[in-house]
Specification:
Elements (H helix, E strand, L loop, with lengths): L2 H7 L20 H7 L19 H10 L7 E6 L5 E5 H18 L6 E5 L4 H12 L3 E4 L6 H10 L4 E4 L4 H7 L8 E4 L9 E3 H7 L14 E7 L7 E6 L3 H10 L8 E4 L6 H13 L3 E5 L5 H10 L4 E4 L1 H9 L3 H4 L8 E4 L6 H10 L5 E5 L9 E2 L13 E2 L5 E4 L12 E5 L9 E2 L3 H7 E2 L2 E10 L5 E6 L4 E3 L2 E3 L1 H9 L4 E11 L3 E10 L7 H14 L8 E4 L13 H9 L12
Parallel strand pairs: 1-11, 3-4, 3-5, 5-6, 6-7, 10-11, 10-12, 12-13, 13-14, 26-27
Antiparallel strand pairs: 1-2, 8-9, 9-19, 14-15, 15-16, 17-18, 18-21, 20-21, 21-22, 23-24, 25-26
The chain binds 5'-O-[(S)-butoxy(hydroxy)phosphoryl]adenosine.
């Protein structure tokens, strides 16, 4: 047990008065449900087509548009600059139907991959859901990605179409000649489509607002997202339509969505949080969602909560820390009294963040939730009805068996640190790693799904995050693979070798730190480091560049030539270096 977590485990408990929630929580009686709940109990939360078929988009949009919620506002899109656009479920239905017709006309076939590479906008939601309706696999891509990141994803998945805008399309063109299977570039806001492009505006105008949402086998795929591991390029994590069952259940049980709620998820649709809880799950519950454009801005965020009457808010620890750092005077200027419940995800939520919220949001704490791109929905969490132990991730969802296991799959005694593992079989679990069965199998060992995280369980059954078991870096809650950054670095002419680690950081959780060996003839300077940073940003992604660069003579390597990041990290942090028997002599 680490000193820090042992102190927290014995630390304070945040008990809640259920009056604070204003509404009866959807999940009551956790202790009973954890014993009795079966996944088949959740099947009735969604609508099925005859013969056991399903479509996630039908549940997210159509069933509301064709029922009592037709005129209810589904999306409040606030561009962050004073312009607000509202779409009812009926309008969202018609728009997504149009988009599905556009894809069908282009000849996009069942389970073809369609990428959505857009800034936050109504078109982002429309094209994402429309793709799923049309039986293709939708893959959203974070707008900060550069040409190399775009190429890797579209190439690996053999994407046939990308929906983008006039600005982002330039990055697509930088690599388009390396993408022979990319047939259609659909551009959203261009006045005139260039040769070979499809004009979103023109095609949408010409398309019918009627479409028969395709009946899918529950095991067919609805979306895929690329995410980083320790080694190699990002992997395509593929999710089935069946996942909507758990995405709906967790939106009800964890995020506590009720008919009258106005809900806001701050994550971009380029990440799994944005897809599952900034689009699919909440709409499947028929709830009004806010989408906010623009960059992080505390004034704008609090104003959005006030102006749209937001009652449920899902955000990330780095954002919480940034808000905390701006002080308590700003939130006090706004009426935040509609808030009922607050949640966070993506990295450890400091106990200070939980407690700060109690002060600033009228005794409402943040509820930490734990999950991953691969798990498809929340698996471990703090439920509204339960007391919170600040710093803990909470308890497993009923239906989910989570444990701390060793390398052989043996369950470790309470209090011991080890691999966080989940018993496979929950509905929203990834179905494959695109074209990479070996990678998928690496997660599945000894009858468990190994999450790549280490954790421990306390005597009350609360889970405590310890760290990553691998070299994956979580920076501002975003997942970055060291190999991708190293690959981008060594493409720079001044760099011969590179090793990349995550370095703990007060605000961002971790920052990316690079150790580089220079090519003969180059010498260290601040200008060179800045140029290298710019180079990585423009090739890979605006967020995945090394904030710190150290020039070194050599990098520690194994005899087979693999860079020992573990050793770089230990040296950087002054930790014991551990077993170095495989170190190059
Ligand atoms: C990794 C997954 C799915 C949500 C966004 C992240 C870390 C996630 C927590 C938490 C501590 C957390 C883990 C996990 N993580 N939630 N509540 N406390 N760490 O999805 O990009 O697939 O990253 O994020 O390390 O494995 P992701």
């Amino acid at each position: 047990m680490t000193d820090q977590s042992s102190e927290l485990i014995h630390g304070g408990l945040v008990t809640k008065s259920l009056d604070q929630l204003r509404l009866e929580p959807n999940l009551r009686g956790y202790d009973e449900l954890i014993k009795t709940f079966k996944w088949s109990d959740a099947d009735s939360l969604v609508e099925w087509f005859p013969g056991g078929k399903i479509n996630s988009a039908h549940n997210v949009v159509d069933r509301h548009a064709l029922g009592e919620r037709a005129d209810k506002v589904a999306l409040i899109y606030d561009d962050g600059e004073g312009s607000v656009q509202k779409l009812t479920f009926r309008q969202l239905y018609e728009e997504t139907n149009r988009f599905a017709n556009v894809l069908s006309k282009l000849g996009v076939k069942r389970q073809d991959r369609v990428f959505v590479f857009l800034q936050r906008s109504p078109e982002l939601y429309v094209s994402f859901i429309g793709t799923i309706k049309a039986c293709a696999i939708a893959s959203p891509m974070f707008p900060a990605f550069g040409p190399d990141a775009i190429r890797d994803r579209l190439l690996d998945s053999s994407a046939v179409a990308v929906v983008t805008d006039a600005e982002l399309v330039k990055r697509v063109y930088q690599v388009k000649n390396q993408l022979p299977e990319l047939k259609h570039v659909i551009v959203v806001d261009e006045a005139d489509a260039a040769a070979g492009e499809v004009s979103y505006r023109d095609e949408m105008k010409a398309a019918s607002a009627e479409f028969q949402t395709v009946h899918m086998d529950p095991e067919e795929f609805q979306f895929m997202l690329y995410t980083s591991g320790t080694t190699g390029k990002p992997k395509g994590v593929v999710h089935a339509h069946k996942g909507i069952v758990q995405q709906t259940l967790t939106s009800r049980w964890v995020l506590d969505m009720h008919e009258e709620d106005v809900y806001w998820c701050t994550a971009d649709l380029g990440w799994v949080t944005g897809v599952v809880y900034g689009c699919l799950g909440p709409w499947s519950c028929g709830v009004t969602q806010v989408g906010l454009g623009g960059r992080f801005n505390p004034e704008m965020w609090y104003r959005a909560i006030q102006d749209h009457g937001i009652s449920i808010w899902y955000t990330a620890p780095t954002a919480v820390r940034m808000l905390m750092a701006k002080g308590d005077d700003i939130p006090r200027k706004y009426d935040l009294s509609r808030l009922r419940v607050l949640y966070s995800v993506g990295e450890p939520l400091n106990p200070e963040g939980v407690k700060w919220a109690l002060d600033v949001f009228d005794s409402k704490p943040f509820h930490d939730t734990w999950w991953q791109t691969e798990t498809g929905s929340i698996l471990i969490t703090n439920f509204p009805e339960m007391p919170i132990k600040p710093g803990s991730m909470g308890k497993p969802l009923p239906g989910v068996e989570a444990a701390i296991v060793d390398e052989d799959g043996k369950i470790l005694p309470q209090g011991e640190e080890g691999n966080l593992a989940i018993r496979p079989g929950w509905p929203s679990m990834m179905r494959q790693i695109w074209k990479n069965e070996a990678k998928y199998n690496e997660y599945m060992r000894n009858g468990w799904y190994y999450t790549g995280d280490t954790a421990q369980i306390d005597s009350d059954g609360y889970f405590w995050y310890v760290g990553r078991a691998d070299d994956v870096i979580k920076t501002s809650g975003e997942r970055v693979g060291p190999f991708e950054v190293e690959s981008a670095l060594i493409e720079h002419e001044a760099i011969a070798e590179a090793g990349v680690i995550g370095k703990p950081d007060q605000l961002r959780g971790n920052i990316i730190k690079a150790f580089v060996v220079l090519t003969p003839g180059f010498s260290e300077s601040d200008e060179l480091k800045k140029e290298i940073q710019k180079f990585v940003k423009s090739k890979l992604a605006g967020h995945a560049y090394p904030r710190e660069i150290d020039v070194v003579e050599t990098l520690p390597k194994t005899r087979s030539g693999k860079i020992m990041r573990r050793l770089l990290r230990a040296q950087e942090l002054g930790l014991p270096v551990g077993d170095t028997s495989t170190l190059e002599g």
